[in-house]
Every structure is written in structure tokens, then in C-alpha cells.
Amino acid sequence: MTEKFHRWHSPNTNTDLEMLVFGDRGYPVIVFPTTKGRYYQNKDFGLIESVKWFVDNGLVKIYCPDTIDDRSWYNKNIHPADRAKTYAGYDRMLVNELIPWAMHETGVGKVAVAGCSFGGYHAANFAFKHPEKVRHLFTMGGAFNIKMFTDGYYDDNIFYNNPVDFLPGNNYHDLWQMNIILGTSEYDICKGYNIQLSSILKQKNIKHWLDIRPFANHDWPIWREMFPHYLSTIK
């Protein structure tokens, strides 16, 4: 499995970002790390190894970027409004830097986004905000309500980066064309978030799969089972 390291200065986040890319061709899959995780986390915890077959056979090309969790939602040293503004810059980075990069390298017009735990938030938030750029959404143990990080403060940046708030009123046609899988498990601490998001999608008649696996916790072993299964649905 080929692996390449990239580092670049992002004007949208005003910081240097790092990323690992696995494979040399195939459908582009952006995989976000969990809470405050780095670009190498999904490799270190075996998530990338779990889908080695798809990479080696040229079916997918996987991009694992940094997040800026410690500068945005998890930064208790700044006002919640500034946390949200900082995260809005990360969203612009995805739209203007990373997604065009992945599309250009693979020649594909839409991407897949995925992530475990808080990485599932990043994936779902981007997919539902920009459905014209996303064909597949795979979350594993995701949490989707950002209000726990805003200390009761609320503004437009928070609204438009909180999927359970903005999704009910989002009527982009591409939402109904997306392949959506919400993976959770019987003892997942985030199972309730997945049930809530599934309910919103049901109310909008958006086809999706709420995959609740039995006898499993909020942890990497079940996510390593889920991810290859989910990638097999990419067509």
C-alpha cells in the first residue's frame, strides 16, 4: 500500500496542515481523525490497514488530513463565537483546498467522507453542508450536535456547522442522491446521536442505513469491522 506525506500552509485556517495519502488511484475518500487526533491516527489504530485490499486494488485513494479541534471546538481559551469562526475556516479549507486537490488527483467529481467518533462529526457536517461535493458519507460512532462545545452561545456559524440544526431545512437535491451510512453499536456512547440524525433523515425521506451493531462499544475494533463493509458500497 503506497503512502505519501503532505504538508502545506492553509490560508483558510492560517496554519500548517499535514496529511497522509494512501493509494495512487481510485475513488477519493477523506477520512477524519477522532477528537484532537492527528493525520496519522487512523493509520496508527489500524483503520487504514482494515481497508488495505481496496487501496491495493485501486478502488479507493484515502486522504487523512489533520483537523484543528484544539484550535476550534475544544479551545476553551477563546469565546465560543471564535471557536465557531475558526472551524468555519477549516470548512473553507476543505471546500477550497483539500476537496479540489482530491478531485483533481483522482478525476472524480464527488468524494466520499468518513470518520470515527468526532471524525464522524467532521464528515457529516461537510457532507450535509456541501452535498454537491459528496457522493458517500460513512460515519462510525459519530456525534453530530456541536452545542456541547458552545457554552450556551449560539450564532450563524454554530447553526451552519451543527448538522442536527441546519439539516432539517436543507433541501439541496444532491442530499437525496447521497449514499449515507450511520454506523453505531449497541453500547456506543454516541448511539443516541445516530438515532437522532437518522430520525431527521427519515423525516426528509432521505435514504440511508442506520447500522447498529450488537455487543460492541464505542471503540476501534468495531470501526475496523465497519469501514471495509462501508467502502464496499462505493460504486
Description:
Residues 94-148 form the AB hydrolase-1 domain. This is Esterase/lipase superfamily enzyme. It comes from Mucilaginibacter gossypiicola. This protein has a single domain, classed as Rossmann fold. 34% of the residues lie in helices and 25% in strands. It has helices spanning 41-44, 52-56, 80-106, 118-129, 156-159, 163-166, 191-203, 220-231, and strands at 3-10, 15-22, 27-32, 60-65, 111-116, 134-140, 179-187, 209-217. An 8-stranded mixed sheet has the order 1-2-4-3-5-6-7-8, sandwiched between helices. The two termini are 21 Å apart. The model has no long low-confidence stretch (mean pLDDT 98).
Helix proportion range: 25-40%
Gross morphology: globular
State the low-pLDDT regions, or none.
none
What portion of residues belong to β-strands? Answer: 25-35%
Name of the CATH homologous superfamily: Alpha/Beta hydrolase fold, catalytic domain
**Could you name the CATH topology?**
Rossmann fold
CATH architecture: 3-Layer(aba) Sandwich
How many distinct helices?
8
CATH top level is Alpha Beta
Distance between the termini: 21 Å
List keywords for this structure.
about 240 residues; alpha/beta; 8-stranded mixed sheet; 8 strands; about 25% strand; Esterase/lipase superfamily enzyme; Mycobacterial_A85_antigen; AB_hydrolase_fold
Summarize the structure.
The chain has 235 residues and is of the alpha/beta class. The protein is built from 8 helices and 8 strands.
